[in-house]
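2024-03-11 09:14:02 INFO queue: dequeued item Bactericidal permeability-increasing protein, len=472
2024-03-11 09:14:02 INFO validating residues
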Amino acid sequence: MFLCWCLSLVALIPLTTSTNPGVKVKLTAKGIEYGRQLAVASILQKLKTIKLDDMSGKVKVSPIGKVKYSLTNMKMVDVGLPTAALDLVPGTGVKLSIVNTYFRLEGNWRVKYLFVKDSGSFNLNANDISISTSLSIKTDQTGRPAVNSLDCGANVGKTSIHFKGGASWLYNLFSKYIDSAIRKAMQKQICPLVANAVSDLNNNLKTLNVLAKVDKFAEIEYSMVASPAVSKTSIDFGLKGEFYNIGKHQEPPFSPAVFSLPPQINNMLYIGVSSFTIESAAFVYNTAGALSLYITDDMIPQGFPIRLNTRAFGVFIPQVAKRFPGLMMKLLVKTVKTPVITFEPNNATVQSFASVTAYAIQPNATLTPLFVLNLDSSVSARVFVSGTRLAGAVTLNKMDLTLGTSYVGDFQVGSLDSIFQMVLKMVVIPRMNVQLAKGYPLPTLGKMKLVNTQLLVLKDYVMIGTDVQFTS
Ligand SMILES: *[C@@H]1O[C@H](CO)[C@@H](O)[C@H](O)[C@H]1NC(C)=O
Ligand SMILES: *[C@@H]1O[C@H](CO)[C@@H](O)[C@H](O)[C@H]1NC(C)=O
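2024-03-11 09:14:37 INFO prediction written
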């Protein structure tokens, strides 16, 4: 029994550690309202394609007697869905209810009785059409959301017809024999067209960028970690939100903490990006060795008080000038472990742990190491949305320099402080900011545009509130 329990616990561990989302998305009532408008527009387009086959028959109409009739060329000329509601069904999905829908058709009529032939055109109005469908929202095998129609009902309440140039008995013919056939023919087509609109919606949902390329090193995974949670006021999606090395998905030695988006109503969509997501990026780039930079003298701005050569450094470390006279120098700055990202309210900070190796460049281009410094620094980050990407910019808070190894004997590391402050501020950070400004893709569907976007840094996550627009 104990063994069983242990085994089941072990089996659970990978599941429970991997299911916390790194990114959360909340669709608010305002977002649902936008969804309703899109749904109505889509169904409207579909309903315009309703086609009615020609109808004909031979019936007895009083007071004429036997009449042969036919209705041909029936065309839908107008469809309206004036009243539609999209309601959330907690735990399941949504229910779309459309009432007072109307169709207007035109066509031609023809009758033959006794020795008379008569014909003309007609207008047909179908009013009081109601359509209702319930949809579940789940995740598909690829981790994208998928909707499924649970039921659909359509009812065409009443129709009225106007025969242009026809005799009054035609109305009897219509109400007795034709009306119900037409209503049935319409009714039969509505739910399949709604299903068609649902399938279009699924095609759009399939455009969720579940694996979005960031650059040559990294991609970010946005698959859903569970089916969306539908409550009375919102639909909440939990996405993985994890950076990976392209091609090899190595898990970092940390996992997402639980966080939840506060109730919000002003924007359609709220996206919470956890510090885990950003830290998984730091893990990927650090592991890929991408967080390193060679600094040569030509990268040091003109007018900088010190150049990268042994004479200039000799002012602070005389042995450098003495043992390696007249040589240019080169620095290698690289992170030695994954930078730590901290989100506190209105405060995003990155702590990084790097080493700086200083080399003398020999005339034959060999690099001779002079010393290695430990450079721990803290930068403040400004995080912002650019298009559909999350980007950033950092400024130096503080820096701490200690000696790692010296190949030139003892020296005062403190004397190099202001040089390295300036190297960070004028060389390293501007280059980092060029990269950070490019940003990385947020979860998006198709050609989604973000508008009225704002961003807040909160404890352990960044919250983006935004409205969306779909352009086709
Ligand atoms: C921001 O947070 C960091 C680390 O959490 C802290 O050291 C720093 O003082 C904070 N800055 C401000 C302006 O609150
Ligand atoms: C390059 O020059 C240095 C210093 O003169 C010497 O120690 C080293 O062996 C040389 N390397 C090569 C590959 O010639």
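2024-03-11 09:14:37 INFO annotate: The domain at 211-470 is CATH 3.15.20.10 (Bactericidal permeability-increasing protein; domain 2).
2024-03-11 09:14:38 INFO item closed
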